[in-house]
Write a structure and sequence with these properties.
Number of helices: 12
Largest sheet: 5 strands, mixed
Order of helices and strands: HHHHHHHHHHEHEEEHEEEEEEEEEEE
Strand order of the largest sheet: 2-1-4-6-5
Number of domains: 3
Structural class: alpha+beta
Number of strands: 15
Helix content: 25-40%
Distance between the termini: 56 Å
Strand content: 15-25%
Shape: elongated
């Protein structure tokens, strides 16, 4: 972020000078470079108002000894400093402190225009008459232009919908208008940190039980699915942003469970008419840490599927009270690890999903694994907070085991 400042400290004025030209040009010639801060290439002011802005700056420079003008220059100069010495200049976020005085510069120019005219004497007498008309036209034009830019162009541009959680905002609107839904599972990009607060901010009701889940860090497809709990005869609702894709196996299971899909502009609403019948290929009955029931697993390894897919089924027993990470190890005949898969985490192991799960929720988890030479699988949960300095502490089952050994179909 501070590369231009570091260069300046090293005696290289180039990056700061380049930033200064970009910042000066952002008011009438060029715009910000990234969508999340504005429309790239679109200056702050249109051509006419930009001329007035630069004219106001020149007026202030000419009259800088007057403390009123000097104060405006001091304020503006101080406000641009954060963007001047950092990357991605110009940055509207880092220059936001200029807003209280930004509109004064074009106003100063228009106010002093008549007094500045010495070449065209008639301007001094004619300007007061035309000023209200011109200002009214400018105000109407820039109001329309600004409204169109802010509410039409910018929200749909670049990474703006992703950065500002537009899909979750639309999901919240849908939930607000569907009072019959009292519980839902919400898929997103940041279930560990942002998605919960985003829904709490946008929702206009506080009677919803929301369970969040998301995409694994570094992947572009979702291998996790949460089926929210509900009353016995109530439907289950899952909302997935349009920009995210559930793994094909998860979509097949939703279809098998009679899931009905309604596709909206920014999200997909999947409705299950009742609690799904969880029937693993290999049933199991284990409880880890008195919090998560392990219901069993499927093993899908056709010739065309590489790596193979292990599908595990879980149900939340009680509110999750500790950080949990799920691991699966493919072991050879000697118990050495050949392949491994870790789930329910992000790039930061301290930010986890489980606190957003409700008792009764069913979690379907896919684990892509290369098991070509594996003899069996080892499955368990551990607390990532115990891994530094280590060793990691596994969460025991109800019988005290630190993990479970799962046979691979067709292998002794």
């Amino acid at each position: 972020m501070a590369a231009p400042l570091a260069a300046l400290r090293g005696g290289d004025f180039g990056p700061v000078l380049q930033n200064g030209l970009k910042i000066l040009g952002m008011f009438g010639f060029t715009g910000v470079p990234i969508w999340r801060e504005g429309i790239p290439g679109q200056p702050v002011f249109g051509p006419l108002l930009a001329l007035c802005f630069y004219g106001g700056v020149l007026v202030s420079l000419w009259r800088w000894r007057d403390m009123r003008y000097g104060f405006l220059l001091l304020w503006a100069g101080t406000a641009v400093l954060p963007s001047l010495v950092t990357i991605n200049a110009p940055s509207t976020i880092r220059i936001v402190n200029i807003l209280p005085v930004l509109g004064l510069f074009p106003a100063l120019f228009l106010h002093n225009l008549a007094g500045l005219s010495t070449v065209f004497p008639r301007l001094s007498t004619g300007w007061p008459r035309f000023r209200p008309v011109l200002l009214t036209i400018l105000f109407a034009f820039y109001t329309g232009w600004t409204v169109w830019s802010i509410f039409k162009i910018w929200p749909a541009g670049g990474d703006v919908p992703f950065v500002w959680q537009a899909a979750l905002a639309e999901t919240a609107v849908s939930l607000d208008h569907t009072p019959a839904i009292t519980a839902a599972a919400i898929a997103g990009w940041s279930p560990n940190t942002l998605d919960g607060p985003t829904m709490a901010l946008y929702l206009r009701r506080d009677d919803l039980a929301l369970s969040h889940f998301g995409v694994q860090a570094g992947e572009d497809i979702m291998y996790t699915l949460v089926i929210p709990t509900a009353a016995e005869n109530e439907a289950r609702h899952v909302f997935v942003p349009t920009g995210l894709s559930l793994a094909p196996e998860l979509l097949e299971k939703l279809e098998m469970w009679s899931g009905e899909t309604a596709v909206h502009d920014l999200f997909t609403h999947i409705t299950l008419p009742a609690a799904p019948a969880i029937q693993p290929q290999f049933p199991a009955a284990a409880t880890f840490g008195d919090q998560l029931h392990f219901l069993g697993y499927d093993f899908n390894c056709p010739v065309t599927l590489s790596p193979c897919h292990l599908v595990t089924y879980w149900q939340v027993a009680t509110p999750i009270s500790q950080p949990l990470r799920l691991f699966v190890h493919a072991l050879d005949a000697h118990g050495d690890i050949l392949a491994e898969d870790y789930r329910w985490d992000t790039a930061d192991p301290q930010n986890l999903w489980q606190p957003h799960w409700q008792p009764g929720d069913v979690i379907v988890q896919i684990h892509p694994l290369d098991v070509a030479d594996a003899a069996q699988l080892r499955l368990g949960l551990f607390d990532p907070y115990t891994c530094d300095p280590g060793p990691c502490q596994n969460v025991p089952t109800q019988t005290g085991e630190a993990f479970m050994l799962l046979p691979i179909p067709g292998r002794d």
